[in-house]
Amino acid sequence: MCGALGDRRPHRTVGGKRCGRLPGCLLLIRSGPVGGTSGRPRRLRERVDTAGLAARIGLGRGTHPGDASGNARRAEPVWQTFGSDLVRMTGGDPAPQNGRMRGFGQEFGVDGCYLNTASIGVPPVPVVEAVAESVREWGGGGGRAPRFDPAVAAAREGFGRLIGAGTDRVAIGSSVSGLVGLVAANLRSGARVVTARDEFTSVTFPFAAQAARGVTVTEVDLCDIASASGGADLVAVSVVQSADGAVLDLAALRAATEGTATRVLLDVTQAAGWLPLELDWADAVVGAGYKWLLSPRGAAWMAVAPRLRDMLVPHAANWYAGDERWDSIYGLPLRLATDARRLDTSPAWLSQVGAAVALPWLASLDREQVRTHCVGLANRLRAALGEEPGDSAIVSVTRPGAADRLSAAGVVASTRRGAARLAFYLHNTENDVDRAVSALG
């Protein structure tokens, strides 16, 4: 069979000292080189058990001051304290605590009315603390490359859980466009791609850039994606549209493409986190971390089904994609991992540190409860504006001057295609909705 895709032929510091066991005080610890004392790190299992991570973690060093007896206690690693295997956050309406917001059991440092997760997500305090501690460790000369591997693995597993895919399917990258570009570069010459009209360009530009090879990209209305998929080599579309929050009919697209030669690439950047997803049927599922996944910019993932993975030439092959990555630094022959890690690019370490805290937590939440909370707030706004209920956590307000009114009232939102875009997430409350309604008049 031809390898071308589409070819259908056969702790925080206080006064310079470590603070105590306070909510949100999470100190990363160093327990020595990954792999023990041999000097050669062992291969890290891609399936991460949070409790076992303590023995392998390698970011930061320190102890907490200790208990009343004066005995020093070794700090628990951030994943053990905050990870999905040991913590189950509670839902419910967030409420201000000490001037900060709490949502789903965690504290957020956001101040004011922030309805802009669709642009940049605001991380919970433990994510901020983890990244800050890693930066301090780096600044003190404590950075060691192998010690970031557990963070990469934890975030990888978290992404897989959020979309309903096995960890062995998940490759890491730094942006959606870079991962989509890998798929685009493997399309056969003359391939036909179907996408949504006014789709986010990180989904479409990589394919449009293949025009010299005869690749065509056809835009259709989002509601027509399923019916237009017939005969296409690939459908590339966001599960939730960036501009206005419109939600793709996933069931219809699956029914239309299953059992056919048409491949499906889904972008979950505006969906993963608030929308429950089970997407193991799709050929590729890509997402960025800096919006609803509450991670620093510079981390992205793509889950690839085996039927597609085996067709993809890893054009950005590098040492981190090696089967034994710390034995793949120098010299030929090519020796890549056999699963989706063969498509990895070298990670942005600090971004992965934040993602390793955020994604396992998000994956541990009751996602139906999260959706009910987020869409419920969005529908409260829609009702106040005289609109019908919707199914998205994103609301597009087309009233003239809406964005200016919101900004003047201190409501942080964004503007897309001339409309104000408001996004409701874990830290938001009915008070945020009411403030936006008051601003809009």
Helix/strand layout:
Layout: E1 13-14, E2 17-18, E3 63-64, E4 73-74, H1 78-82, E5 96-97, E6 100-103, E7 106-108, E8 113-114, H2 125-139, H3 149-163, E9 170-173, H4 176-185, E10 192-196, H5 201-208, E11 216-220, H6 225-228, E12 234-238, H7 250-257, E13 263-267, E14 284-288, E15 300-304, H8 306-309, H9 349-364, H10 367-384, E16 394-397, H11 402-408, E17 411-412, E18 414-416, E19 419-423, H12 430-440
Helix pairs in contact: 2-9, 3-9, 4-5, 10-12
Give a verbal description of the structure.
The structure is a single chain. A hairpin with a 2-residue loop joins strand 1 (13-14) and strand 2. This protein has one domain: Aspartate Aminotransferase, domain 2. The radius of gyration is 23 Å and the shape is globular. It has helices at residues 78-82, 125-139, 149-163, 176-185, 201-208, 225-228, 250-257, 306-309, 349-364, 367-384, 402-408, 430-440, and strands spanning 13-14, 17-18, 63-64, 73-74, 96-97, 100-103, 106-108, 113-114, 170-173, 192-196, 216-220, 234-238, 263-267, 284-288, 300-304, 394-397, 411-412, 414-416, 419-423. The protein contains twelve helices and 19 strands. With 441 residues, the chain is of the alpha/beta class. 27% of the residues lie in helices and 15% in strands. The strands form six sheets. It has a seven-stranded mixed β-sheet with strand order 9-15-14-13-12-10-11, with helices on both faces. A three-stranded antiparallel β-sheet has the order 5-6-7, with no helix packed on it. It has a three-stranded antiparallel β-sheet with strand order 16-19-18, with helices on one face.
